[in-house]
Amino acid sequence: MTPSAHVADSGEQKFVVQEHHARRLHWDFRLERAGVLVSWAVPKGVPDEPGPQRLAIRTEDHPLEYANFAGEIPRGEYGAGHVSIWDEGTYRTHKWDDRHVEVSLQGRRLQGRYLLICTDESQWLLRCLSRPIPQLDPPGDKHSEPLPRHLAPMLATLGELPDNPRAGSRWAYEFKWDGVRALVSIQDGRFQAWGRGEADTTGRYPELQNLVDAIGSTQVLLDGELVAFDAAGRPSFAVLQRRMHLRDQTEIARMAVEVPVSFLIFDLLHRGGHSLLRTPYWQRRKLLESVVPPGSDWSVPPCFSDSDSGAAVQQASREQALEGVIAKRLDSPYRPGKRSPDWIKVPNILTQEVVIGGWREGAGRLKGQLGALLLGLPDPGSRRLKSGKSLENLSLTYIGDVGTGFSEAVRADLTRFLERAGRKTSPFVTPVPTGRARGARWVNPTLVGEVQFRSWTADGRLRHASWRGLRSDKNPAQVRGTVPATRTVEER
Questions:
Q1: Cα separation of 357 and 376, whole Å?
Q2: How would you class 446 by CB atoms within 10 Å of its CB: exposed for 0-12, middle for 13-18, buried for 19 or more?
Q3: At 77, phi and psi to the nearest 5?
Q4: 460-469: pLDDT as tens digits
């Protein structure tokens, strides 16, 4: 029996979770009860959403004053090490006996219903039973906000899976999809779609009308990825290329049957007249799952938030030949147009957006056609072009060339475009190696593409690059990259 069992609940009382860097890192979960803090040590951290169960070891009760303690416990004393307050707030009791403690927490990080079950003397299991879904006022009330138009999507930073044990289950892990980013607003039975470059792509993807019909009268703004699948059922950017650049409505209708596109939705930014940009990610996901029903042309892909699931999701992404993993901090807001460390992308392959600055003619059977493209990144001094200024004045830093990955049809299409885009002078402000420049034809830097590659060389060149396709959704001046000094790249 715990010292505080069978004491009547007195309404809201205090709880605190302290991060304790003792001999082994753990979290102390403490509930005010009968004049003391009833305490458990949780080695892997308190779960902050339903699913995982955590071992919780019952420890001695602490005085109420300890709820405010943060600082150093001196070496040589019991529990020596640094203590900080990880979360605090109030709770209400639903059940409390010798073997069960069920409470509802209302803290900064932890919110929802929690259950502790005794399994063997001092050993308990702690899990989150449910988290509250935020209740929004009905549409049309005095707090209603207009649906935003052409909001820029939030972007992820390149990095490794979060492996700091203090992160606990505060991250969600999603698969990274090989498609094109899209924000879709739905209102009054109509939809509008746009991407990172904010170009309107509404007419290119008529499949989205089925999603409008399924959602009905709810006003929403969704964030996701438009994806096409290959014959093996894997997302394929090459297949999607057949849809990305179409403009003729008759051709779009025909290709929508031949090359169907799915909208994989992973975020909800606006619902029923209310902005959700400041709402924590986990709450946006809960709302998204309640708003979007299953469909044949769209889905809400799963996310996983147990502290041990990141590596498992990454392994699954490799086994399924997917692009990689996105890790998202559960308490993060949505930052339109910002590349934020709250979202971390962990790719299985390296990809880079590039601007075409020139080309060389092929030899043999490729005589008269594209042999290789000369690639660059916008020079930092010329990236910020004034509104309306011609992209022909954009200067490029040379980063290498690419001569593989082209289908015959793509090679022919690019050859025709490049022949029309010619210019006399090189757009590169850094020297192009003599062997690469010999016989090169320069073009205006107006076309964005994407390559995959193995690594960067020490002198800032792409190693073993292969062409993936054009990116008509991107503006050349917006292409970014960071090369060998930091050995990272900014991807889409």
A1: 7
A2: middle
A3: -90, 160
A4: 899 889 999 9
The mean of the pLDDT values for the chain is 85
Here the tokens at position 178 are 């090989």
Calculate the CA dihedral of residues 438, 485, 445, 192 and round it to 10 degrees. 150
pLDDT score at 480: 81
Enter the tokens of residue 119: 């399994």
SS3 162: coil
Q: What is the CA angle 75-81-84, rounded to 5?
A: 145
Q: In this structure, how many other beta carbons lie within 10 angstroms of the beta carbon of residue 227? A: 22
Spatial distance between the Cα atoms of 181 and 196, rounded to a whole number of angstroms? 7
Phi-psi category of residue 121: left, alpha or beta, with phi > 0 → left and psi -120 to 50 → alpha: left
Q: Classify 192 as helix, strand or coil.
A: strand
Residue closest to 66 by CA, chosen among 21, 103, 16: 16
Contacts of residue 226, defined as CB under 8 A and 6 or more positions apart, other chains included, come to 179, 180, 181, 182, 205, 240, 261, 262, 263, 264
Instruction: Note if 286 is an active site residue.
Output: no
Task: Tell me whether strands 262-271 and 190-194 are parallel, antiparallel or unpaired.
Answer: unpaired
Report the candidate in 279, 158, 282, 276 with the shortest Cα–Cα distance to residue 218. Answer: 276
User: pLDDT for 309-324, tens place per residue?
Assistant: 788 898 898 888 888 9
Q: What is the pTM of this model?
A: 0.60
Pick the catalytic residue: 44, 176, 345, 474? 176
Higher pLDDT: 37 or 150? It is: 37
